[in-house]
Amino acid sequence: MKISLKMDEGTRAAKEPFKGSEHVVVEGACPNCDANPFKVAGFAGTRVETHDTIEAVAACLGCQTRVGKLVVKVDTIFGIEEDRRVLAGPWRVY
């Protein structure tokens, strides 16, 4: 999985601080409040961009200001939507 934050100034790399985290840590400081570490969470507008990319509006957890869009590229063979359908079931066990 590759995570980045698209901002007006450009794109910054991001990473999960731990597996299953509800936020990511972005390189550098927040452009609004100078929070460092720069913790960001997606809060609205989640949508699938391509078969392997999800995009969401992102905000800084320090100042609660919108800072750009989080872009998550996941490792998938068949695509995000197909993975969701398969995991949701129904499954048949023979």
Specify the number of helices.
1
What global shape is seen? elongated
Which residue ranges are poorly predicted, with pLDDT under 50 across at least 5 consecutive positions?
Answer: none
Q: Numbering strands along the chain, what is their spatial order in the largest sheet? A: 1-2-3-4-5-6
Major sheet: 6 strands, antiparallel, barrel
The CA-CA distance between the termini, in Å, is 33 Å
Estimated radius of gyration: 15 Å
Give the number of domains: 1
Order of helices and strands: EEEEEEH
What does this structure look like?
With 94 residues, this protein is mainly β. The termini are far apart. The protein is elongated, with a radius of gyration of 15 Å. 10% of the residues lie in helices and 47% in strands. The model has no long low-confidence stretch (mean pLDDT 88). Strands 1-2-3-4-5-6 form a 6-stranded antiparallel barrel.
Summarize, please.
It is built from one helix and six strands. It is mainly β.
Give a quick set of tags describing it.
six-stranded antiparallel barrel, mainly beta
Topology:
Blueprint: E1 2-7, E2 10-15, E3 24-26, E4 38-50, E5 53-60, E6 66-73, H1 80-88
Antiparallel strand pairs: 1-2, 1-6, 2-3, 3-4, 4-5, 5-6
